[in-house]
Amino acid sequence: MIEAREITVFTEKSASEVVRASAQGVRETTRGTDPYSTYLSTARVAALLGGVSRQAISGRVERHTLLRVTTSDGQQVFPEFQFTDGHVPASMKRILQILLPAAPDPWVVVEWLTIPLSEFDDRTAVDVIRDGDWRELDNLKALAQDVASGWRDR
């Protein structure tokens, strides 16, 4: 029924299949088009970082130098955008160390890092970090400190 792309019987099962197929279609459509939509497993991050242990990854998370989020189904994953050439750049680590201790939830940090920032001509914090201009990075760090202060004050 779904494979033929037509629905002739509207039952609870067919409705469930339509929802499942639609969700899968959205995932497949956005995969690769949104640079912020890819998340890595702990095993994949361990391999990416040169075969480090799960304990080493947890240590980085605890030191706020690696961003980990928990999905609605309880999976712990790592946004791929924080990695460049198999590591987390020092400038990304500095921003994470400012934001994560103050954030109400790590997902808030994901959002802040990936929204267009008017202070940087609507580029994201991730874009500014990747561009690597030290003056912009200093300004981004100051902005992150202001944002973190606002989070703490809530």
Architecture overview:
This protein has 154 residues and is mostly helical. It folds into two domains: 1-31; 32-152, no CATH class. Helices cover 52% and strands 5% of the residues. The protein has helices at residues 12-30, 42-48, 54-62, 90-99, 106-114, 125-131, 134-152, and strands at residues 39-40, 69-70, 76-79. Helix 4 (90-99) packs parallel to helix 7 (134-152).
Summarize the structure.
This is DNA-binding protein. The chain is mainly alpha-helical.
Topology record:
Blueprint: H1 12-30, E1 39-40, H2 42-48, H3 54-62, E2 69-70, E3 76-79, H4 90-99, H5 106-114, H6 125-131, H7 134-152
Antiparallel strand pairs: 1-3, 2-3
Helix pairs in contact: 4-7
Protein name: DNA-binding protein
Strand content: 5-15%
- What string, H for helix and E for strand, traces the elements in order? HEHHEEHHHH
How many whole angstroms does the radius of gyration measure? 19 Å
Main β sheet profile: 3 strands, antiparallel
What is the domain total for the residues?
2
- Contiguous low-pLDDT stretches (5 residues minimum) are 22-33
Average pLDDT number: 86
Instruction: Provide a count of the helices.
Output: 7
User: Roughly how many Å apart are the termini?
Assistant: 51 Å
| Spatial arrangement of strands, main beta sheet | 1-3-2
Spatial shape: globular
The counted number of beta strands is: 3
Q: Name the structural class.
A: mainly alpha
Helix content: 40-55%
Overview features:
154 residues; 7 helices; 52% helix; three-stranded antiparallel beta sheet; 3 strands; DNA-binding protein; mainly alpha
